[in-house]
Amino acid sequence: MDLNHVVDRIERFLLPLLSIGLALILFGFFCGFQGLNPFDVYASIYSAAFGHWSSFQNTLLRAAPLMLCSLCTILPAQTGLIVIGNEGALVVGALCATGVGIYAHTFVPFIAQLLIALAGCLGGGLWIGLIGLMRAMRGVNETISGLLLNYVAIALLNFFVEGPIRDPASLNNPASFPLAESHLLGNLPGMRVHLGIVAGLVACLLSAGLIYKTPLGFAARVTGGNYRAAQIVGLSVNRLMITFGFFGGAAAGLAGMIEVAAVHGRANDDLVAGYGYGGVLVAFVARQNPLAAIFVSVLVGGILASGGILQRVHDLPDSTVLVFQGLVFICVLWSDSFYGKLNSLIPQFIQRNRHLKFNSLHASEDVSHG
Amino acid sequence: MSARLSLSRRIVLRGMLAAGSLGLVKAVSGCSPTRIASNAEKNLVVGFIYVGPKDDYGYNQAHAIGAAALSKIAGVKVVEEASVPETTAVVETMRNMIEQDKATLLFPTSFGYYDPHILKLAKEYPDVQFLHCGGLYQSGHPENVGSYFGYIDEAQYVAGIVAAHASKTGKLGFIAAKPIPQVLRNINSYTLGARSVRPDVTNQVIFTGSWSEPVKEAEAINSLADIGVDGVTCHVDSPKIIMELAEKRRINCSGYHADQSALAPKGYLTGAEWDWSSVYQSYVKDIQAGKSLAKGSIPHLYRGGLGDKFVKISAFGPNVTPEAKKDAEAALQKLLTGELVIYSGEMKDNTGRIVIQSGKVLKQREIALEKMDWLVDGVKGSTKV
Lengths: 370, 385
Prior knowledge:
The complex is a heterodimer.
Chain A (H helix, E strand, L loop, with lengths): L2 H31 L4 H14 L1 H26 L7 H18 L5 H30 L3 H21 L33 H18 L1 H11 L1 H6 L4 H28 L10 H11 L4 H16 L1 H6 L7 H16 L6 H10 L2 H16 L1
Helix pairs in contact in A: 1-2, 1-14, 2-3, 2-12, 3-4, 3-7, 3-10, 3-11, 3-12, 4-5, 4-6, 4-10, 4-11, 5-6, 5-10, 7-8, 7-10, 7-12, 8-10, 11-12, 15-16
Chain B lengths: L1 H28 L5 H5 L4 E6 L9 H12 L5 E6 L6 H12 L5 E4 L5 H11 L4 E5 L11 E6 L2 H14 L4 E6 L4 H17 L4 E6 L6 H13 L4 E5 L4 H9 L3 E6 L10 E7 L1 H13 L12 E4 L6 E3 L8 H16 L5 E2 L2 E2 L5 E3 L4 E2 L16 E2 L5
Parallel strand pairs in B: 1-2, 1-3, 3-4, 4-5, 5-11, 6-7, 6-8, 7-17, 8-9, 9-10
Antiparallel strand pairs in B: 10-12, 13-16, 14-15
Helix pairs in contact in B: 3-10, 6-7, 6-11, 8-9
């Protein structure tokens, strides 16, 4: 392994950390303008998000749906698709899971839960698979179609919840019939975190395996790297796009199923809580890497978990947590433009030699193209 | 490239210094917040949770005004959290208020907080009292849970009278979120109020489908203004955009939830407002006196209208004529005493079906009114969205 390679690796760890540090500093100014000591606020955020076991559970609860939803962007991204239809996939997954759950309410719990989960995955998977299909067959821009399908999904949810599957007892808060009590997913033993976190972790790990360790994942990455080259070497790029869209959608659909089966117990418009859009942000901050998505989800979950203490203890406005989250995202995305530049600095510091610097600039360019 | 990087490093250093100095100033002046500690000294900690921002000119602001009124009572400490979604987030917020702030009375104010979130947590904390806005309590729910709601349609009835007086075209408009009973009742009462002084008035209703849809609400108000509607009101979470656009389109408007006269100083007629200050103060006084939901000394369902100070109307705006004021105040008086009953037969819906038989009188608290699924004659629109 040569020096450039090592520096690249260091950079990959250093840049995200530095950008979060920068975001903290900028946020410190914000707190300062609100008349608060930034360090008090940092301490509060830390204690509310990671400080002790109870608050960390709060963080994990919020991170679970983000992990699953981020995969809805990460997996199709391997084939070069930019999908932001996560919210729609979550909602459709939740709706399908509820439908099957209502139908299967007399089934044995384990069988019913399996069917409900499958329905959620299938619903979400087909939803994003459709986006991939439209892109592959008709050249429809997947970002736009995904965004628009989010609205379609929410309209579908409202239609079903206020129509065919409405529980007539839910007079002033329209909701579907509930799932059978015995079919609901419980919490992990000794915790108040539901199974969603396990599903999220497993899904992220499986996705990493799929992307980095299998021929299918390699084919997808080739497609994402260069669509034409992939076609020339004989990969069926259309099928890859649809398949990875399906996998991504299935993950978001599973998130929807878990929201229904572990949190709400039924479908209603509370399902539209923005997890899908949160997942898009996580995916981009994680640079479309499913392993990084685990950590980013926990970080974002922690930021969200700290929102309460900022309001209750520091009297900061409720949008503070959005300001902080926004700063983190902007800094991390901005830091993207610095990748590959650390290498160009090293010869300059060590040798102060114009000639070498020129060479290494070329070298770093090669790396970034590769 | 390296020059740009070193510049940004310098900026970072400068930033760190500045942030540090801020901290220093605060540390020296010694005014860092220590509110958690002071909570324990007061006897009753009350937690308020809102689904949106506290300054939304609507549903949440109305509750926040009520919460602010509690701080006047001695021995009460209020903690608040806004923009809490109706997911596990609200469970965590309630839990933190109970465990960290030692709150023993919670007002989670949004509809969607109730089932399953409040119901779940209430079993875990039997000593904490959960009071939920919406009237969703049913027997069999945990003993420490209560629900309250107001008959705000009485205020809408009065607003309808004022709007009918001010209208030149005889066309009113109503922008609503969902065709649920509580919303339909407001639409019907507003229409009935208007038609009580001017029987030819029509009320065009537009459903947006969700509680917070500023874009659809804006489209709705513009299309209403385009078809000649010159007086609008609404039932959505935040009427801000509706009031602002009504003013811009130079038509009259009537507020909902909270006082929105500041948004439409010319065209604001009146409004149907919640009076949560009075409700919350009476709850807190009961609890300070040792009453509780579990003991049964506080009712699980607590509802009221104008007469019980659950709701009120906004001060009249400049476009309200003396005649309109006279009619409105007369109706207000009769509603306060219970002499005026809004729903009495024979009443037809807007498809011609008889919904209340002649001779039948459905008073404020009648259960049948809680299941309303029709729009009264004079309303243009359908409950099917």
